[in-house]
Amino acid sequence: MSTADIPPRLVNLRDVATASPLLRPGVLLRSDAPHSEDEPPGVDAWPPAVVLDLRDAAEKREAHPYSSRSRIVDLPLLGGRARMDPDEVDVEAFLRAGLGGMYVSMIQGQAAALLIRAMEEIARADGAVLVHCTAGKDRTGVTVALALALAGVPYDDIVADYVRTAENMPGVRARAARTVAARTTGTRLALDVPAEILTAPAPAMETFLDALDARGGAESWFRSTGGEPGTVDALHARLRGRGAGSSLTA
């Protein structure tokens, strides 16, 4: 693919408030990974005050392009699994679990602690927060889904917002060549794997939300995993309260 075929802007950017009328615009944004050569999006006060970068270090081609203007919080939710080395990871087992299984794995172990941190950052930020990974689909989808579940957004709305990414995946795949670090021999990125992982199927997010319910719901999981009750209250107020923030223009 020539560089002329690579979209020169974020292709999976949206205000999470479009997921539900309950939500306050300009507080939480989601996107694919930005690149220093990107054209600026039509967003007020860009870039956001806080950026949660959920990528593994091996996925990053360059220093974060917003680091001089935003506070960048690195939260590598896959803990190295985004770059699958056959000598270190059972790739076939990873794929057999499917997207839903991968999403559920993020509410366990070290990834769960990073999700707690993500909720704290969103709840306490002074200004808009952008959440992104490489595609803005899987790790971003889980992080946004958890935040919305904690804010009391209906599951149907959470799933519908997640599914919207599917239409943007061709552009996301093209941009991966611009944003993802060059691969080394014997490794491949999860983004390169065909079929389900290149889509945003509703059952995958439903599996994740069902797993939260099996743990007593989002708030019960949050508290049992070490999250503070005050964070849930603050998150609810931030996402559903009144006030001004950055917003996507029409």
TrEMBL record:
Report domain Tyrosine specific protein phosphatases positions.
Answer: 113-159
SUPFAM superfamilies for this protein: (Phosphotyrosine protein) phosphatases II (SSF52799)
A GO molecular function term, named singly, is: phosphoprotein phosphatase activity
Q: Known InterPro entries for this protein?
A: Prot-tyrosine_phosphatase-like, Tyr/Ser_Pase_IphP-type, Tyr_Pase_AS, Tyr_Pase_dom
- Protein name, UniProt field: Tyrosine-protein phosphatase
